């Protein structure tokens, strides 16, 4: 078994990155135009990397499957981005952001990577402001902050409920500038379908032009994969419809280890499922937990009455409400980390207190009435009205809420047809983010030399649970501030290589394998749609590899997915042709990879005989239902090596995690 | 609210590819939940078509929560359909009546050629951004501290409102002249309102407008349809601001 080398630099935690950067190799400006780099994905990590490397003078080719790089799913991030600026003077520091992130990840992330992330967090905000990102500001003209889960400071920068949009458009503008200057070639509506290795190194990709169907060969001296997460393996998730694992999975199949696939974030505040034709779930930002209080009825008969429509939440007296997060976790209250909040909601619903009238009663309330009153009073007082009427308080309070969360409230109303200013929101956990991903070393390089992986697609920074407002931070940190250094270090040995030819046997083989799978789908004489299978896969994943996992359930999941996958290849019907825009074919190719991934996730969850972060094994919990971590046996990154379509053959490699700078402890938010 | 189901008739634009001639086709779809979004209704129709071994209808979509700007569709003569301040993916079937006939067409504009069925090519928007929709700052992170230049809340809020444009193209599709002025002015305004963007504001507006004209978008005749149909309620004020910026740039151009 090969030893995984994480290449963590020596030295004190706060000096590692600076020192490492000082010793990385450089490529001189005159040599950069001789070097080609491929970037797959144009979300925060991909767009930032492509823009930065383009600025440096490399030849960059960027690919996205959407019709424009601006549509990547980073755009949908709502709440904010963390940075250790301490503008609010509430005791924040780089160390605290580092500590909160390690603790939030339940001690399953690499210290050195997380510290680097915290170090560069402040620069991200500076950079974005310089690009014209319109963050929320206070009346004095300075930047505003709010709180997110798992922290006791206000370090989250935001732009209403559209922070991801504003940051992505910032990165998109930097990318657009490079495209306009001719330093980045942009390939819209292109999907990477394989990575090409020559002499063991990543040397290019096979991509399908989604409009013409043409299979194209693109060569490069390095390939960066920034294709996002794999939450859509569950079919229903907060991901965009097109979000997929294919680019990352193809790299895995060609030799990149896949780490901690079972670490999935189930986000506590999403709009509950409404019916079988539902195509996706919509998130209600974690920022709402700054102002909203989560509750279910204390009495089971009240919950029943609500589900049957005999009672309204506003009719339930204050004393009859169970603010279960405030009850269980007084120190953090409604702002506990996502995994903790999600499990607590599931516990109440499993116990029969759920309020949503769907098949599984899965729903709890997120109530803004206390905040509306409090902020209304404050606003009246500030305007000199020291004895405001109840109507005035409500009016001012609603106005305040609208200014903070207006777009989220509007989204909620459009989907549910209910007015959240008048009645509490109904919410329930849903699949949101995947902490697992392609294994990378400190330089963000995978086990394939020359193949780098950034953003949600890698595994590196969030351990077993990601804290809110940290995904945007990581995407931009990787793209703007890490890859330009580490990729250059790798490329310093490539200045004499010359253009990589695309007529080699390796390119032939990769192209042929892509063409053959496409042909297989289009000539398959099945009768069922791709979605039919994707939904069934999603159900197995949600029920058995979701919020609660057990040995038996996971074993069943592995067998059920294997059987379903066989059925998929026999029974799926993919209409249309190869040489045209064919969305059903695109879906089939993605779902094929989700089948393999789903099995690996179950296997990974099965080997991890502990509960940590978002990975909750029902066998490993304490008397109060909290996670029981096993640091003695599982303080490692589980990195899987692909050994063929039978996932049972995949081999587990362990990267031990050393905590030199943070004392490892039970995670406590009480 | 209790959901119910409705039966609907659909007249949908079908076009094999950019070179072929398209036409409206009629479909009947039963048991559509009023809780479904418009795109979930199209999913349901596509599922039915595939099961009948017919080619499904191609349409652009991705995030399905009103922010990516992928979805389009001209529904009953309106961009993103009859509801206000929403994209098609946020439009719900409760806005339609049982037995109703719904007309679905792609965006129609010279600068947005049809690729297939309801999918159009909006890369002209990207090229306008590439011509100047940015601040020329490298991504080194070595800028000044984010709080070094205070920005008044009013200007910051206005810049933000302009910046919420999702680039869907509804403004173009709604305009009798297929003008892209609302889209272009949103970016011009956002950056002109902020001190970081002011430095190159003149060059930016000239370059972006030039590219807009080259792409074949029409002129603005102040009908205001764009702002009415805009899912993000981008204000016409931005067009006025862009005109001022443009005029300033023209008179002071060297």
| Number of separate strands of chain A | 19
CATH homolog superfamily of the largest domain in chain B = Alpha-helical ferredoxin
Strand content of chain B: 5-15%
Helical fraction of chain B: 25-40%
What is the molecular shape of chain A?
Answer: globular
Give the proportion of residues in helices of chain A.
Answer: 25-40%
Rg of chain A, Å, rounded: 25 Å
Question: Which secondary-structure class do the elements of chain A indicate?
Answer: alpha+beta
Task: Write a structural description.
The complex is a heterodimer of chains A (670) and B (254). With 670 residues, chain A is of the alpha+beta class. Chain A contains 17 helices and 19 strands. Chain A is 37% helix and 14% strand. Chain A has a five-stranded parallel β-sheet with strand order 5-2-1-9-17, with helices on both faces. In chain A, a hairpin with a 2-residue loop joins strand 6 (190-198) and strand 7. Chain A is globular. The mean pLDDT of chain A is 96. Chain B folds into two domains: 5-115, Beta-grasp domain (Ubiquitin-like (UB roll)), CATH 3.10.20; 123-252, Orthogonal Bundle (Fumarate Reductase Iron-sulfur Protein, Chain B, domain 2). In chain B, strand 6 and strand 7 (119-120) form a beta hairpin. In chain B, helix 2 (123-132) packs antiparallel against helix 7 (201-214), helix 5 crosses helix 9 (237-252) and helix 7 packs across helix 9. Chain B is elongated, with a radius of gyration of 20 Å. Chain B starts with a strand and ends with a helix. The chains are: A alpha+beta (670), B alpha+beta (254). At the A-B interface, helix 2, helix 4, helix 5 and helix 11 of A face helix 1, helix 2 and helix 3 of B.
Keywords:
heterodimer, A: 670 residues, alpha+beta, five-stranded parallel beta sheet, 19 strands, 14% strand, globular, B: 254 residues, Fumarate Reductase Iron-sulfur Protein, Chain B, domain 2, two-stranded antiparallel ribbon, 9 helices
């Amino acid at each position: 078994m090969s030893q995984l080398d994480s290449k963590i630099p020596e030295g004190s935690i706060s000096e590692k990155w600076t020192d490492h950067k000082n010793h990385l190799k450089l490529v001189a400006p005159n040599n950069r135009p001789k070097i080609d780099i491929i970037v797959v994905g144009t979300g925060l990590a991909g767009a930032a990397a492509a823009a930065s490397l383009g600025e440096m003078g490399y030849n960059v080719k960027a690919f996205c499957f959407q019709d424009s790089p601006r549509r990547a799913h980073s755009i949908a991030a709502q709440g904010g981005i963390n940075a250790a600026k301490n503008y609010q003077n509430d005791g924040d520091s780089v160390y605290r952001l580092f500590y909160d992130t390690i603790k939030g990840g339940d001690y399953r992330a690499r210290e050195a990577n997380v510290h680097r992330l915290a170090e560069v967090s402040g620069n991200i905000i500076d950079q974005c402001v310089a690009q014209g990102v319109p963050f929320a500001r206070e009346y004095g003209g300075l930047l505003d902050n709010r709180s997110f889960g798992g922290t006791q400071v206000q370090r989250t920068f935001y732009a209403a409920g559209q922070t991801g949009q504003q940051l992505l458009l910032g990165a998109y503008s930097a990318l657009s500038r490079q495209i306009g200057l001719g330093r980045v070639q942009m390939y819209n509506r292109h999907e990477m379908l394989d990575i090409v290795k020559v002499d063991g190194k990543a040397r290019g990709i096979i991509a399908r032009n989604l409009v013409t169907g043409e299979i194209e060969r693109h060569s490069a001296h390095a390939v960066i994969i920034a294709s996002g997460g794999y939450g859509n393996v569950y079919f229903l998730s907060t991901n965009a419809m097109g979000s997929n694992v294919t680019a990352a999975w193809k790299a895995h199949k060609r030799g990149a280890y896949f780490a901690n696939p079972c670490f999935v974030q189930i986000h506590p505040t999403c709009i509950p499922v409404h019916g079988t034709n539902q195509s996706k779930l919509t998130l209600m930002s974690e920022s709402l937990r700054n102002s909203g209080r989560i509750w279910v009825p204390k009495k089971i008969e009240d919950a029943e009455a609500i589900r049957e429509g005999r009672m309204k939440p506003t009719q339930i007296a204050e004393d009859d409400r169970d603010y279960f997060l405030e009850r269980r976790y007084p120190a953090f209250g409604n702002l506990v980390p996502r995994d903790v909040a999600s499990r607590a909601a599931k516990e109440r619903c499993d116990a029969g207190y759920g309020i949503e009238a769907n098949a599984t009663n899965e729903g709890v309330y997120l109530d803004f009435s206390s905040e509306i009153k409090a902020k209304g009073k404050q606003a009246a007082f500030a305007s000199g009205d020291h004895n405001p009427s109840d109507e005035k308080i409500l009016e001012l309070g609603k106005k305040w809420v609208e200014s903070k969360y207006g777009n989220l409230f509007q989204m909620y109303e459009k989907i549910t047809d209910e007015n959240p200013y008048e009645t509490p929101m109904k919410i329930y956990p849903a699949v949101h983010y995947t902490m697992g991903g392609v294994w990378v070393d400190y330089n963000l390089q995978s086990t394939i030399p020359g193949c780098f992986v950034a953003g949600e697609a890698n595994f590196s920074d969030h351990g077993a649970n990601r804290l809110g407002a940290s995904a945007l931070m990581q995407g931009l940190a990787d793209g703007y501030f890490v890859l330009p250094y580490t990729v250059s270090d790798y490329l310093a040995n490539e200045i004499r290589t010359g253009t990589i030819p695309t007529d080699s046997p390796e390119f032939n083989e990769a192209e042929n394998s892509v063409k053959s799978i496409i042909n297989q789908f289009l000539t398959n004489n099945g009768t069922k749609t791709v979605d039919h299978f994707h939904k069934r896969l999603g159900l197995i994943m949600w029920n058995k590899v979701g919020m609660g996992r057990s040995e038996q359930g996971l074993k069943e999941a592995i067998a059920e997915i294997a059987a379903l996958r066989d059925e998929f290849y026999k029974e799926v019907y993919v209409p249309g042709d190869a040489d045209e825009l064919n969305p059903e074919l695109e879906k089939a190719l993605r779902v094929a990879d989700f089948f393999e991934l789903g099995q690996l996730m179950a296997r990974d969850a099965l080997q991890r005989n502990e509960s940590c972060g978002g990975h909750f094994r029902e066998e490993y919990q304490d008397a109060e239902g909290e996670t029981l971590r096993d640091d003695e046996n599982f303080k490692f990154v589980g990195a899987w090596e692909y050994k063929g379509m039978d996932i049972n053959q995949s081999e587990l490699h362990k990267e031990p995690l050393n905590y030199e700078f943070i004392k490892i402890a039970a995670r406590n938010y009480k | 609210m209790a959901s119910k189901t409705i039966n609907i008739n659909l007249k949908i634009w079908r076009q094999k590819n950019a070179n072929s001639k398209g036409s409206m086709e009629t479909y009947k779809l039963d048991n559509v939940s009023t809780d479904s979004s418009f795109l979930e209704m199209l999913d349901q129709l596509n599922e039915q078509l595939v099961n009948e071994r017919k080619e499904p209808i191609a349409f652009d979509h991705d995030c399905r929560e009103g922010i990516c700007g992928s979805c389009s569709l001209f529904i009953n003569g309106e961009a993103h359909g009859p509801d206000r301040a929403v994209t098609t993916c946020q439009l719900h079937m409760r806005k339609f009546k049982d037995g109703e006939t719904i007309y679905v067409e792609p965006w129609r504009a010279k600068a947005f050629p049809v690729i297939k069925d309801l999918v159009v090519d909006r890369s002209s928007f990207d090229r306008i951004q590439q011509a100047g929709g940015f601040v020329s700052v490298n991504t080194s992170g070595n800028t000044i501290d984010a709080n070094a230049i205070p920005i008044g809340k009013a200007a910051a809020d206005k810049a933000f409102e302009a910046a919420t444009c999702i680039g869907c193209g509804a403004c173009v599709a709604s305009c009798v002249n297929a003008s892209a002025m609302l889209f272009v002015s949103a970016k011009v305004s956002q950056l002109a309102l902020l001190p970081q963007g002011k430095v190159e504001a003149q060059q930016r507006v000239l370059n972006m407008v030039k590219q807009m004209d080259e792409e074949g978008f029409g002129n603005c005749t102040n009908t205001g349809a764009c702002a009415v149909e805009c899912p993000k309620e981008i204000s016409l004020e931005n067009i006025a601001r862009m005109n001022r910026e443009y005029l300033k740039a023209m008179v002071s151009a060297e």
